[in-house]
Amino acid sequence: MLNLDANIDLDVKKFFRWWGNELSHLLPEEIKKILDQQQSKLILRPHASSFSLTYEVGEAIENLGEFSRDAAGVEAIKKILAKDARYEKTQFIVRLAPSDAISKELTFPIAAAENLQQVIAYEIDRLTPFNKDQVYFSVKLVEKNKQAGIVRLVLVLTPKDKLDALLDELTALTLHPSLIDYEPVSNQAKSDVSHYNLLPAHRRENKIPWHSYVHGGLAALFFLLLSVAMVLPIWLESRAVAALRDDIAVIEKEARAVENIQAEIDTIIARAQQLIAKKQQSPTIVDILNTLSELIKDDTWLNYLRFNEGRLQFQGQSPAASALISKLEESELFANARFVSPVTRDRLSGLERFQLSVDIKPRSGDDATR
């Protein structure tokens, strides 16, 4: 049954070592060569009267020779290192022989795994013939068995006086190792999760290993790409939506302009149709004059005529002005005939002077469409 209360023991360093190795397989060959050169190691093995030196890159091992443990031998080592640019950024390691160090496999309860260095420092006089002030020690983790509740490790130690003397000798010769291990329990590749170092902390240079930069850079790149992969589609979609909104705003503006123009056109058409309809409903001036000429006898004549807003006003002289009213009323074109002013008689002509107003009847539907 799944135990949801169990603690999750996540080894972050182990994960990042594994992750870095997996990512390295995806790199181009040229970059891998550069990184391999950065991961190369110069291993110095001290013996009673000599030093042996090897150059290692991955599985390839190049023996650079054996040198006497004196000024001449060290000078020869310096010349070899100076003439080849490969050695400039190479990790310098001192690997102790069985005559300079010892190791012992131990088993502890798994609870001690969180603080092995302090546990060993407290128990070292019981576990070895030395006390903690006599030796430098380090721990190489072999196995952490959670089911059995134990942790297996290898304790590696070397006498302080012997290692201090060796380091003083190398320092005087301007050789500064970054790591010291033991030949029978040597560190493997950088991905070795049980990596250990016998070099005392106060002798180590305060610099961050290059692979820390690589792992940090890869982690930063991973999260950057992850962020880009998550944010970029949203950003592109928002840009597309914004562009569509801008296009829609332009189209809406153009549509409103078209609607306004269409409204103006409709208004003009409506007014024109009203004028046309009004004009079609009213008789033409020619029809009015023809009808008026037919109704008025030859003894009647006009000296003024005005047509406005469906009404015709005219004045003139006639022998019988009152007879004009009935004639105009009988017409299909005129209606509501009336005198505008009193009828008077002209003394010279003897005719009645009149001023009439008459309404013009609208044309019928059939006549208006002709």
Automatic annotation (TrEMBL):
Name used for this protein in its record: Fimbrial assembly family protein
Protein source organism: Methylotuvimicrobium alcaliphilum (strain DSM 19304 / NCIMB 14124 / VKM B-2133 / 20Z) (Methylomicrobium alcaliphilum)
Pfam families given in the database record: PilM_2 (PF11104), PilN (PF05137)
Superkingdom of origin: Bacteria
Keywords from the named record: Coiled coil, Membrane, Transmembrane, Transmembrane helix
Record field: transmembrane: 213-236
InterPro entries the UniProt entry points to: ATPase_NBD (IPR043129), Extracell_DNA_Util/SecSys_Comp (IPR052534), PilM (IPR005883), PilN (IPR007813)
Coiled-coil ranges per UniProt: 241-278
